[in-house]
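Human: I hope this is not a bother. Would you mind checking the protein record under this note? Thank you for your patience.
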Amino acid sequence: MNLFKKKISINIWLLPILVIGIVALTLISVFWGMHKLTHNAGGTLQFLYTLGKIRSSYVGEYTDKKLFEGAMHGLVEGLDDPYSEYLDEKGFSRLNEMTDGTFGGIGVVLGQRNKEFVVVSPMEGSPGAKAGIEAGDKILKVNDVDTKGRTLEDVVSTIRGKKGTSVKLLLEHKNGQQFTADIVRDDIKVKSVTGRMLPDSKIGYIRIAMFNENTGEEFKKAYEKLEQEGMQATLLDLRHNPGGLLTECVKVSNYIVPKGPVVSITDKKGNTKVYESKLEKVKYPLAVLIDHGSASASEIVSAAVQDTKAGKLFGVKTYGKGCVQSVFHITTKTGLKLTTAMYYTPSGRSIHKVGVTPDVEIELPEKATVDVQLNKAEEYLRDELKKR
């Protein structure tokens, strides 16, 4: 009985010591993590001091959630990488809408270059395209508010909105001319792939607007349908295609790129993953249309075609996005989009900030009434068919 009492007393004394120890270790761990992030103890104290002052002295209203999300946004913005971003609930929802192929807004894909907001591409038939917005245009103001100093997510969020509402944009063309566009938003439903036979020819024309979750299957159906209609040459249009899912562009490449590497992805640790085509032989003569609005996944496809000599590229130099983003779930409704790797073409070249230069350079004149790029590619394919 005495031994039992002794055991109890020892446990009672150990319990607070154990709790204090756990708390101390937790604080040390937090402090050490902050120390590594700020590189000095002073920085850690500055962060904690600022947080404490906000809590004790700030006269306005705020929520802990807003402070937390502001810190998360700032943390990722510190990377100075336009393709990495913290995705709050709205941002995460927008990303899912994009990859699903349906979203609301004006149908313009934006990018950020040298801290300026640049149109990567307006989507075909979208309100933005109908308003005269072109690839390469800079967005200077949204609803009379300057875009300088804002985040890409913030600008996109302001432009997005419900169908029937309007947004006012001040833009600048590549020639320096500024113009204002008042655009009524709509529900943007992206049909990823369309196809048709060119008139009086055996050339199948396939247009890919973007690479979403349905692109691989849609391309397969369009390609096989055109084969049934007598296709003997393929004209692939990737102009104004801002990219999308890597897996889907690899699926497409399996129809037009010969057996071997399509793209290789190298991460921070130097680990490399190679995505390959299993196509034994390219069936038909191939021409691919590209322009300044062709980015990311569309550049992977066009560069693979060029490197493997599976076909010829026509148009102008592409956007130049050769990095890969991964999306990590933070919670069920928030996430982190982070640049985690660089990709390389089959020949091993990086096109990041460089772009893909076409085999035949041909500019589409402003307000052109004839698609000279498509005509040039069609002429090439007709000549190739005559050789057979």
About this structure: The two ends are 102 Å apart (CA to CA). Residues 2-38 form the longest helix (37 residues).
